[in-house]
Write a structure and sequence with these properties.
Blueprint (H helix, E strand, L loop, with lengths): L4 E9 L5 E10 L4 E5 L6 H7 L7 E6 L2 E2 L5 H7 E4 L12 H11 L4 H14 L15 H13 L5 E5 L7 H13 L3 E5 L3 H7 L2 E6 L2 E7 H5 L2 H6 L6
Parallel strand pairs: 3-8, 3-9, 6-7, 7-8
Antiparallel strand pairs: 1-2, 1-4, 4-5, 9-10
């Protein structure tokens, strides 16, 4: 059985010379939900952007047994649903329906199948009634749900989420936690929200200075005050 995500010795520097990843290796099994934590500038977002080929460094990145290289981008991007921190980076169509239908239409699916995928994705995020609404009139919590629906409509095997709870009020955050808990996909979720990590993920990766500095059971890592403090995180 192949791992769903396999990264080996990934190194990446930005054009200005800033080394963002300094040899990252990790593997995530099918169905595993894993948190990625660390201070700002640790390389978390940079790592995530490698999982569907938006960025390409040196080293090996595989998703669902497929190398993340140019020839495979179509397959990789169908398998990996990447949800950005700011939902406005993801939502650009006139209505919610159009946003969620964009991927399936792009995949060349029939009108009936597109409709089915949109209905399914909106139902999964509890937004079935919102298809005709204008995306930029939604609250931030609703926008985050729709952004997740835009990738769910592609039937991805993997969800990669960057700061999903940022900017949410307590009620929206609580419903997001419920949503992530119930989705069946393999997940890698970058977040500063340690209570969310404790509640949702049995395994956590800590990144700092472009490296994974700890990888283990969430409870054990989050109870290690010295480890957290060393990497700019606060024990809660």
């Amino acid at each position: 059985m192949h791992h769903t995500i396999e990264v080996e010795n990934l190194v990446f520097s930005y054009p200005d010379g800033h080394a963002a990843l300094s040899g990252v290796s990790l593997s995530i099994a099918p169905g595993e939900k894993v948190a990625l934590v660390g201070p700002n500038g640790a390389g978390k977002s940079t790592l995530m952007l490698h999982l569907n080929g938006i960025l390409q460094g040196q080293g090996r990145v595989q998703v669902c047994g497929v190398d993340v290289v140019k020839d495979n981008f179509g397959r990789v991007r169908a398998a990996v649903g990447l949800v950005f921190q700011n939902p406005d980076d993801q939502l650009f169509s006139p209505t919610v329906f159009d946003d969620v239908a964009f991927g399936p239409i792009y995949q060349g699916l029939t009108k009936t199948e597109v409709q089915r995928r949109v209905d399914q994705a909106l139902a999964a995020v509890g937004m079935r009634e919102h298809g005709r609404r204008v995306s930029h009139h939604l609250s931030i919590g609703e926008k985050k749900r729709i952004a997740i629906a835009t990738v769910l409509s592609m039937n991805p095997e993997i969800l990669v989420l960057d700061e999903p709870s940022a900017g949410l009020d307590p009620r929206a955050r609580r419903s997001l936690i419920g949503l992530l808990h119930d989705l069946p996909q393999t997940m890698l979720v970058s977040t500063h929200d340690l209570p969310l990590v404790r509640e949702l993920f049995s395994r956590t990766l800590i990144m700092d200075h472009g490296l994974i500095v700890a990888d283990g059971p969430t409870a054990q890592l989050l109870d290690d005050a010295a480890l957290l403090e060393a990497h700019g995180l606060e024990k809660m």
